[in-house]
Amino acid sequence: MNGADPIPPPGSFSTRRAFIRRGLEAGAAIAATGGLAALLWNRHPPGTLGRGGPASSLPDFSIRGDGGKMAIVTGADRVRTLRRGLDLLGGIGRFISRGDRVLVKVNAAFATPAILSATTHPDVAAELVRLCRGAGASAVVVTDNPINDPESCFALSGIGAAVAAAGGTVAMPRADDFTPGTLPGGRLIRDWPLLQGPFRGVTKLIGVAPVKDHARAGASMTIKNWYGLLGGRRNQFHQDINGIIVELAQLVRPTFVVLDGTMSMMTNGPTGGSLADLKPTHTLIVGTDPVAADAFGATLLGRTHRDLPYLGRAAGLGCGTTDFDALKPARDSVS
Amino acid sequence: MKITTARRLAQIFFLATFLWLCLVATVGTGWTQWRGWPIAWFLQLDPLAAIGTALTTHSLHPGLAWALATIVLTIVFGRVFCGFVCPFGAIHQFVGWLGRRVRRPKEQIAANAYRPAQAVKFYILIALLGAAAFSTANSFVGRLHVGLLDPISLMHRSFNLIVLPAGDLVSGRWFPGGRFSSGAALIGGLFIAFILLNLLVPRFYCRFLCPLGALLAVLARRTLWSIGKTGRKCSECALCDVDCEGACNPMGPIRVGECLMCMNCLDTCPSAEPLAYLKRPSQGGEVTAHGVTRRGFLVAAVGGLSVVPLARLGGARTAWSPALVRPPGSVAEEEFLARCLKCCECVRVCPTNVLQPATFEHGWEALWTPVLNNRIGTSGCQLNCIACGQACPTGAIRPLSLDEKQGRGDFGAAGPVRIGLAGVDRGRCLPWAMDRPCIVCEENCPVTPKAITVSEIEQTVRDGVLEIAAVDGPTLRIRGAKLTPGRFASGDYSCRLAGEPGGRAIVANAEDTITVDAAAAWTEPPAPGTRVEVQIRLQRPVVDPALCIGCGVCEHECPMNGLRAIRITADNESRDPRHSVLLAAHAAGPSLPSTP
């Protein structure tokens, strides 16, 4: 039809035909509107938002039957103590196999230089990367969700450059890396944003942390280090610091952890900022039981596991033992 | 090559260079990062920045001497900067060209006719320089407001705060969390409006508003060469007006100051004989006046000059805004306002995005100057970062060394640079006001020793006075209690009998029982009917003003997400002794262990 229709005489056939056609057009418009409404219909409007589907949890990366192994090596050279510690546990090959995709969770919380020991030392992070690559790992990804500006943290701590030079990659936390996770039976970690992006395809998990004083938690070591996997408004968890660390101990089951007590931050933690805050305790722990590793680490700070309530509670929930001596840790000294 | 082709290539080159220098203005050593790129080069080339700061500070900041090149270029050759170099001009010209394509030549000629309103830009220039020049013996300091409309400052502001962050937001390429800019709607809205106005009148901004263009027009008054008529036969076809960017009337008596040196007239003239870039004067006559009336000049000058005394009358010197927390190295506020170009280079390079353009909230004089907002960005001001001062082209933020910023080495006696002071809002702080443990602020305080310490107390919890029904080793059975199971087991709770000096740590509780640490159990069980108090151990943050540098990491991390329970104000900032809080004798704080 071109242009305006001439007005048909009333009652003519064309009027009826026009009426039917307009009726059909109206029907189609109504159907389209209804269909669009049905398509956009929100079954979960704000206010009735239920728990979504079962939120994901992190897989268990521990090696079956390999629990409760621990090595304590004294010495000032982190690379040598780390290598010796792993040797005492049977070598890196015991944990990392050809083709493994390894995630290393460092503590890169603060934008401070490595010498201040507020972050995982780049030497340790890089050596872990090198060892894993040497054991045939197809990829080694290093990550953290730091407190200070992420780029600055990885740059200033030296971790970024060291890891890249050693053949690993740094996974900066991006907004879409955080997806809700739930600890089965957990009270705090329920639909909480977790840094799960870097976990894609990962088969082995290593945690590596320095020994640090912490006014609220008593100390920050390998288990507290998992705090960096939390996203969202995680600062709220300070209201129940022991509770959240216990849940992190339950949520994260690493292949092994490295606790670096070469320089322990005795005061002013976890930020430090001065060499005066540090003490050369010259000890590095490698272990498959984070609770035991931290219980030993507490002694480097002149504390015991009793000063850190989360350790006892985590042990009570089957995450490990505070009685590290019962594990008969292999000890050695390299100097 | 035609001269207009050369001009287009130059415009593309300088716009691309400008974009590149904006893009790389991020902290880092990669070649796509700041490294050593001269990120403020266009601002340094800008005579309005140089003359403006020279008027306010009576000195020329190093780097701004580049402006001499532009001044010499203009005096000798005319407004080549506008036609060939200015990146904002290039955008205007391109958009104007887009708008022109739908117009007939006759309409184009009409759009490119000189309008008396082109004198407005001179009034703007006079007012801005008037405000800058106002400084008197009794310590009135001129205000540098040229950056509000200076095209280079405006371009940097718009690209640093709007265009690139928008790109970041979409691509996630440079900043994983995105970049945010306070008051983006105004900055971006003006930028878009100025660009769209080209569809109405080509080069709208350049012709009517641009104070830099006005300054260059004044300088171009006595150029040696200009576009003009050769005296050879001209049919007065007016085709030279079709693409004339400056609306300078090349066919008749040319307005030398308005000519943007676009050279389009040489291109569109059909015979290529009557028009040329030639030794002055033009055989077609010249108009060198700018259309500025004596009355208009006086009004603009008085308007500009009045900015300074009016600002003083506003009381800002005594009732200075405590919300105006300036980046480290900033000079005292009066001098800051005399130097800051509002280019927002510092805002762009700030790695955490904590540095933001001030909005009208911070007083109209501070508009688009840098201010810290600890609720935006990835963290507060980073202890080991000095990027903003290195980026500032005019010395409003001094380029600090890390030693000076942190008060080390030669600067040990002066102490660290303080940009403000944290204050705990005890009515909002969880452990102070709501009996909940927290001290995230203390955890994250980056100075050593920490400026935030804790004061510890044991506080009886609400409904925490209970009556013992029975005792079984470390476990107390409570009469008539309905406790939330596990509530007191977090490690923060203890219980003590009335009159006992200290509490015993609670390790578990059920609905009607409380269990204390076995090692701390009673040797003599308390008698049934005895009262027991459940207490929470609270660590309450306390700020030491002798140590706090005002970095704002605490405010950024405070879990009181809306109005933070610990907030930074500009109190005690180093840059102005009148803002100090402490007795000078005590300000240095306790004798600190020297840090290497």
Structural account:
The complex is a heterodimer of chains A (335) and B (596). Helices cover 29% and strands 19% of the residues of chain A. Chain A contains 8 helices and 12 strands. In chain A, the strands form 2 sheets. In chain A, strands 1, 2, 3, 4, 7, 8, 9, 10, 11 and 12 form a 10-stranded mixed beta sheet that branches. In chain A, strands 5-6 form a two-stranded antiparallel sheet. The model of chain A has no long low-confidence stretch (mean pLDDT 91). In chain B, helix 1 packs across helix 6, helix 3 (47-57) crosses helix 4 and helix 8 (120-133) packs across helix 12. In chain B, a hairpin with a 6-residue loop joins strand 10 and strand 11 (504-509). Chain B is an alpha+beta fold and 596 residues long. Chain B is elongated and about 120 Å long. The model of chain B is unreliable at 589-596 (pLDDT under 50). A 6-stranded antiparallel barrel of chain B has the order 8-9-12-11-10-13. Chain B has a two-stranded antiparallel sheet with strand order 1-3. At the A-B interface, helix 4, helix 6 and helix 8 of A face helix 20 of B.
